[in-house]
Target: Flagellar M-ring protein
Amino acid sequence: MPRQVTSVFKRFGNAIREFTIAQRTVAIIGVAVLVLGIAALSMWVTKPAFTPLFSGLSGEDANSIVEQLRTDGVEYELADGGATILVPEASVYDERIKSASAGLPTSSTGGYSLLDTMGVTSSEFQQSVTYKRALEGELAKTIGALDGVKMASVQLAIPEDSVFVSQKNDPTASVFVETQNGVTLSNDQVQAIVHLTSASIDGMTAADVAVVDSTGTVLSAVGVGATGGADQQASDYETRVRSAVQAMLDKVVGAGNATVVVAADMSYESAERVEESFTSPTEALALNESVDTETYSGTGGSAAGVLGSDTAAVADGATDGTFSSESTTRNNAVNKVTENRTIPAGAITRQTVSVAVDADAAANLNVADITSLVTSAAGIDAVRGDAVTVEVMAFDTTGAAAAAAALKAAADAAAAARFAEILRVSVITAGIVITLVVSLILYARRSRRQSRESVEIGDLTAMQNALGEATVPLSVTSSAGSLFLDNPTDTPTKIIPTVKFVPTDTDLRRAEIDSLAQSDPRSTAEFLRGLMDDRQRA
Model:
């Protein structure tokens, strides 16, 4: 190993030995954090991106696919309780093709694929049962594709057709739904499941479908429909009307100076109404017309008397008589209008609106004007018995002031907590940074001191030998014995033998400093800077 590298390692080891316990602890923590960060970064960079291979798998399908991935040597991860399998993005399509060739995943719900395996010799009962299972499987897969639905199961009760039954029962369906964690089906989603199921079976209505979730809650009952839908509809209507009236009053009297309460009565019964109206067309020809005429004419004989003593004799004579009768029957065209009207559940039968306005805000307002505005905004119908009440009264702001004070105190406390946390983190960070900076400064100063004090013996010896072997030619110019350096251009009077030059300690140190300054100017500058710092401290 080169001498310079060995010297660096020695200096580093000496600096570490001179560290205090606190400095060593900080250094160890810093090195550990650095190593862990590098390891985590390398793992994150080298980890492949995983993509779902299949989701919503059954236990059998997941086990079969995992066995195939192990055989192929492909990394995988399980999610959603084993129902989702994740593989590296580069292997997704290859593994899907291999799974499809192996018949994975298998369709546990069957669906119409059950009809493919039905033999020719199947009985009528087997055919009907298989067809019903196919319908149930297809419905279950369709319902399971809804957002928030994890798994669905459908059971159908379809009565058999028979010529010996005069009245046929309606088919019914039972739907079991398992939702994902933290998901609750809305009323619209329940209605979608009900209508989807009822529309798939001939003769089934929405009232013939029952929906139950995994918690045992009845979302829709047979003969009733979706439970909770009527209450939700009334609540939505009240909220909509209240929001409209409140928004109007906030602009008139200011926000917080009025409160609105809406109560709506709804009819939860549906009805069907048939109306027929007849009108006579103008200037229309009769459909048909018939005239019956009767005429009689002839001579009548005289009445014969009865013989007896009390009977008067009647003169004999003949009388002529006629009779005529005429009747007309005319059938005219009549306009007939038949109207079938279905009245759905949820019709508003009556609603009331109550408004309270702060007296200070309504000092210059007319109550009648406010009542008129509220009546129009809420859609009040006096025929059905709707009512509007507007009262001006003083609001109690004690609770609001206390709530505002509590909110302000909570906000101040939260801000103080955040400031304290920021201060704590800042102090800890500053302490770590200061410790590291001080450690680096101490290490740098020790390194400079060691570089100033260290002397390469080999270089000094070589320099001393070079200086010791140096000779200077001398010449005598007078009897006084004065010497001068010989000029090679002049011819000396007399050349004496060369005299060996012996350097002093000062010459050696000066030569050493010159050599170090030429070989390492940076270290020389640091050495001089250190001397100046020491003199300033002294």
